[in-house]
């Protein structure tokens, strides 16, 4: 079975309910995945390992069952979103004083 792109929001919410209040009704999967990335960084900061385990089980499922568009979204959207949020939180992108 292939997971279609339109099912991503539902699967992310099922696995990672902490993002429900932050999701916008934009209909954009990229914004949904960016919200999940922000939530994942927050969960990591709060040592919420069980939440991260559920999220990344969902991500793995999407990589395995998703079509090329889904895999691209998860790779480009989620992984880059995690990287961007982690770097921005650490201050690594700030210019030297």
Q: What's the average pLDDT?
A: 85
Percent helix, as a range, is 55-70%
Helix/strand/pairing category: mainly alpha
Q: How many structural domains does the protein architecture include? A: 1
Low-confidence stretches: none
- Counting copies of identical and different chains, the oligomeric state is single chain
Q: Largest sheet, if any? A: none
Shape: globular
Strand content: under 5%
Terminal Cα separation, in Å? 53 Å
Round the Cα radius of gyration to an integer and report it.
14 Å
How is this structure best summarized?
This protein is an all-alpha fold and 97 residues long.
Report on this structure.
It is a single chain. With 97 residues, the chain is mainly α. It has helices at residues 8-15, 29-45, 49-65, 68-90. Helices cover 67% and strands 0% of the residues. The longest helix is centred in the last third of the chain and has 23 residues, at 68-90. The termini are far apart.
């Amino acid at each position: 079975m292939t997971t279609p792109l339109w099912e991503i929001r539902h699967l992310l919410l099922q696995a990672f309910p902490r993002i429900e209040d932050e999701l916008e009704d934009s209909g954009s999967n990229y914004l949904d995945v960016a919200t999940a990335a922000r939530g994942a960084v927050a969960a990591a900061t709060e040592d919420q390992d069980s939440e991260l385990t559920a999220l990344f089980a969902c991500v793995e499922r999407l990589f395995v069952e998703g079509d090329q568009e889904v895999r691209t979204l998860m790779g480009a959207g989620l992984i880059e979103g995690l990287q961007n949020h982690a770097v921005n939180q650490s201050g690594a992108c700030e210019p030297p004083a």
